[in-house]
Amino acid sequence: MTATRPPGPSGSTRVERAERPSPWLRLLPGISPERRGFVLAWWGFALTFCGMRLLTWLIHIDVAGVGDVQAGGVHLHHYVWGILLLAGVGAAGLVERSARARAWLGLAYGVGLALVVDEAALLISLEDVYWDTEGGISIALAIALIAVAGSVLAVTRARRGSARDADGGTGDGREAGGKQG
Question: Residue 16: which H helix or E strand, with range?
Answer without folding.
Answer: strand 15-17
